[in-house]
Amino acid sequence: MIGFRKVIRNRIEYRFDPLTHEQSRINPDRAKRLKQAESDIRLKEIIRESRATCVFCPEQIEEKTPPFPEAICKGGRIKIGETVIFPNLNPFGENHAVGTLSEGHYLDLDEFSVDLLRDNLLASKDYILSVYGHDREALWPIWVWNYMPPSAGSIMHPHVQILVEREPVPQQARLLEKGKGYFELNKKRYWEDLVAEERRLDERYVSGNDHLSVIASFAPRGFNEIQFIFRESSLAHLDEEEIDEFAHGLTRALRGYKAIGVGSFNLITYSGPVDKKLDYYSLHTKLFSRPYPKGVYTSDTGPMERGYDVWVIDTVPEGLANSMKPFFD
Ligand SMILES: [Zn+2]
Fold first, then answer.
1. In 3D, which of 179, 168, 176 has the Cα closest to residue 142?
2. DSSP string covering 92-128, please?
3. What is the Å distance from ligand 1's center to 65 Cα?
4. Spelled out in words, what is the top-level CATH class assigned to the domain 66-328?
5. What's the first-to-final CA gap in the chain, in angstroms?
6. Residue 203, SS3?
7. pLDDT, tens digit, for every residue of 171-229?
8. Average pLDDT of the chain?
9. What are residue 230's DSSP bridge partners?
10. pTM here?
11. 53: CA distance to ligand 1 center in Å?
12. Residue 78 Cα to ligand 1 middle (Å)
């Protein structure tokens, strides 16, 4: 059973994630402030200046990025369409690779085509399976996309990061444990029940079919947080059709983001392991906005998030779902 629990104190909604019970706080009045699309003249300059020395641009990428060992990939780099995957020179995890999304140095949110995203996802899956083929303990894939510097992406050129680790990251381990507990108690997959309930309520449900559903999170940990929930349990098990649907969904969400004034985001995946299909778990991804890239901006996380694990959110999930729906029609 899915419970969307919230209590209201001092006009602030304390919302609790239906699975993990993690707390988010939303002040609906504060969140409904209309924000105009932002812009920054300096951003255009930064894009132009960074272009000249960019090691992810086609002229430099072969020379300035390292190759994989032949065992991982013949020829040293995995290439599909405009995507090139190579080892991360400054890793923070195991089997940490970088994959460019485009040959273009800068793409606005509405300029990412289905082809660019599909090719990147296919190449990333190849990388994950190749690493696993080489090391049977590399079980836990991660695919993250940080878009523009406020998201912690230090390189402007569109790219994702792919990791394949021996252990699930702490939040992934928590989701697996909670999901397993829910399955044992209810004989149903939590994410299946969540999607069914969101579809019935139709307050945060955006779009979906049998393979993939899109909802705005009830208790978000990011502004404008959208979830893509898959039927499959792992990134490594997505077939071409599912990857294609995900690519389509992402382009729609990014067009919707641009329309509501978003200029930076993070996309994170919570994936089950490569080696088996889990009956109690659904692969899902969270897309959430970050502050608009401009000279000086107010950060969207402060002491409550960094120090107390309380997520103070300025965007209302139900309003976000309404803003997104037209882009999925
Ligand atoms: Zn570039």
1. 168
2. SSTT-EEEE--SSS---GGG--HHHHHHHHHHHHHHH
3. 13
4. alpha beta
5. 29
6. coil
7. 999 999 999 999 999 999 999 999 999 999 999 999 999 999 999 999 999 999 999 99
8. 94
9. 212
10. 0.95
11. 8
12. 18
